[in-house]
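Let us practice reading a record.
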Amino acid sequence: MSDASPTTPMDPRSGGRNHPNSHEASSAPIRMGFFEPLGDWLAERRAGARHDRILDFGCGDLLLAVLLDGTWIVDGYDESPTARAAARESQTRLRAPGTVHDRLADVPTVHVRAVVVNSLFQYIPGPDAARDLFATVGSLLAPDATIGIVVTDAVSEGANRAIDLIDVVSYNLSRCGVRDALVGTVKGIRSGRPSTRHRIPQAELERAAAEVGLHLERLPTSLTRFRRRATYVLRHAAPDGERSA
């Protein structure tokens, strides 16, 4: 994990899969900083087996592999060719210890203990589409997977959107000067594409997961530095006594 000081503050609207800012090399340290809690959580839960793998579904530029720093074997997949190209660049530029796949069929699923779906569900238009994605990703887990699927997503309605912005400004200020932080944040907002985000209520996500044999639970705290982001864990349905976060 690099701790180099960034020169470009984080763009609060750079989460789009094809948004040019979402793969910008200069913003990588800031973006990694926002997801350090997710990396720490996953590192603590590694089973320790030699071939344990984690699938980064919608991998972007493969920064999860940099965050985990070899504690897991990371397989990256993204539907966007632009994202896959950025991921391969990260393998060289940041020495990201992961493998980028052009097809899901190429992922060695027998050893996949966890799947991360990070900031993707805000682009899913409804529970039916969520159910289809749950079914696809759930099928990639090893039969005895113990962690399940981690889904970190935006809760960006009303006051929560303003709190997201405050979190971005605060974090930028901690890494950059006042002028650079504020100018960079405003520039990011102005250059961002119109919002296409959706929010599926938790109850509907739970039903969508149950329809494909998965159990969904929301963690009590966000695994990002955004205070109002939601993080969910999904597992193959099992007796209540066998579930733990």
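A brief commentary: The domain at 20-158+193-236 is CATH 3.40.50.150 (Rossmann fold).
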